[in-house]
Write a structure and sequence with these properties.
mainly alpha
């Protein structure tokens, strides 16, 4: 069954929105720490990786994973700056820098992961078999 380009574009838009929501949630939660343990960073990274893997696995489309990753990184960049009231969501600290590079690394890893669902393509023709003699 061939998927129309309209449904493919709509799946990319939906994936970008989902990625953006997870990007916002992870960016807000990344700074939560329980003593010396960065619980927010760990949970946010697991959640973002899980949604990217789910999008890639369920849609069988690398484009949807790219859209989700761009939505995630786009929202991270959008809300990382200084807000109109002077508030900063992602401070220039170690956890903020780790979060920024961690999200980019997770997105790149999920997008670049090879697809094992398709059989490998043969690059050479199969060896020709000798025809069997026919008895007449």
């Amino acid at each position: 069954m061939r998927v129309s380009w309209v449904s493919r574009v709509l799946s990319w838009v939906a994936a970008a929105v989902v990625g953006g929501v997870y990007g916002i949630a992870g960016t807000i939660a990344h700074s939560v720490a329980w003593g010396p343990i960065p619980v927010g960073l760990i949970v946010a990274a697991i959640a973002c990786a899980a949604i990217l893997i789910a999008v890639r696995a369920l849609t069988h489309d690398r484009g949807a994973a790219v859209a989700a990753g761009l939505g995630m990184i786009g929202m991270l960049v959008l809300i990382s700056g200084v807000g109109p009231g002077g508030s900063v969501v992602v401070p220039d600290s170690l956890s903020g820098q780790v979060w920024t590079y961690l999200v980019a690394g997770i997105v790149l890893l999920v997008i670049a992961w090879p697809s094992f669902s398709r059989p490998p393509v043969r690059t050479e023709a199969p060896a020709a078999q000798e025809p069997e003699p026919h008895e007449t």
